[in-house]
Amino acid sequence: MSGPFKVLALGGDHIGPEVVGAGLRVLLQTADQFGVGVEVEEDLLGGASWDVHGTFCTDAVVDKARAADAILVGAVGGPEWDGIRIDGPITETDGLTRLRIELDVYNALRPARAWSSLLSRTPYRKEIVDGADLLVVRENSGGVYYGEPRGREVLSDGQVRAYEISEYRTSEVERIARCAFEAARGRRGYVTSLDKSNVMESGKLWRETVERIGRDEYPDVELQHLLMDYALFAVARAPKDFDVLLADNLFGDLISDLIAVISGSLGMLPSATLPAAAREASPVKGGLYEPTHGSAPDISGRGIANPIGAILSVAMMFEYGFGCAPAARAIVGAVDSVLNAGVLPPDLGGTADTGAVTQAVLGYLRSSASWS
Ligand code: IPM
Ligand code: MG
Fold first, then answer.
1. Rounded to whole angstroms, how far apart are CA atoms 35 and 332?
2. Which of 232, 248, 263 is the last residue of a domain?
3. Which of 247, 263, 279 is the last residue of a domain?
4. Distance from the CA of 301 to the CA of which of 118, 178, 184, 326 falls in 20 to 30 A?
5. Among 101, 250, 253, which is best to mutate for testing ligand 1, by the most ligand atoms less than 8 A from CB?
6. How far apart are the C-alpha atoms of 7 and 321, rounded to whole Å?
7. How far is the CA of 342 from the centre of ligand 1 (A)?
8. Any domain includes 29
9. Which H or E run includes 261?
């Protein structure tokens, strides 16, 4: 038995705790089946934390996250907390971004694939999307999210000026570029780097740095650069033409929602955000695992959220956090079986609720143990 691995579960807001609950059930059963020891602790993040502690992420949660091997996050935010104005860095006003900075998780891996049983749930013709398999590598602890100064001020003419800075240092671009090239080596060996180097200084630095790291350290990986605006069109038009999409914090946020289209729903997408590059079979401590979707206040409390993004995030936790790829494959296989069986939540056109989808995944997982 490996482990025990310490897991901190932070449900967050609205559907966040619902999908984290589903993820934890899959985590515990998978751990049991594969002989991986896990100890789970739960705490608050986002608006749920604000309501109790008056802050979106407490120091205690940061300490627990630092001590954890892996952190499972649901989703944060909602209209209840949108109006709260706090001057200062984003880390004061958003618990998730504080956690990302405190843990220095800069390597956000956001995969999306076309599932054969869901092709008709996408807006694509089958031949365009069948076989599409993308990985966004998003820089997640720098750029415009954290650039200083930021703020707002009232000008002498009475207008309000609000501003932030998009900034990158060479070392920040180098380390995320390496993550993308490493990821591409384990896939189809093809990186597309996205930027706005035609208008942004940070975009120019981004492009020249990625180019140099590719040329000097990863000559075996194919690299192309695309301007971000064109890339949105090109990826949407022909998703199968791409493999790894490398982007800064803001552009990575945008394109990772876009690629959900090939999976049929944003509810399908997992992520792993790591403080290092992911390497085969060597666990990375302190990664953050979260579905890419938001907190969906419109369906909160109804028990109908799609838990698959959270469940696949748990699969990524087994792969990267615990170095147990067979368990990750078993979870993905069980999800595939559930989709093939037509057990679909409402966002995919079905009627199965969160509990039914989770139950079905657990059922297939149980039967997979006999042959794995
Ligand atoms: C994401 C989210 C976050 C982001 C929000 C909730 C701060 O959209 O993880 O993609 O912008 O990074
Ligand atoms: Mg986002």
1. 18
2. 263
3. 263
4. 118
5. 253
6. 10
7. 30
8. yes
9. none
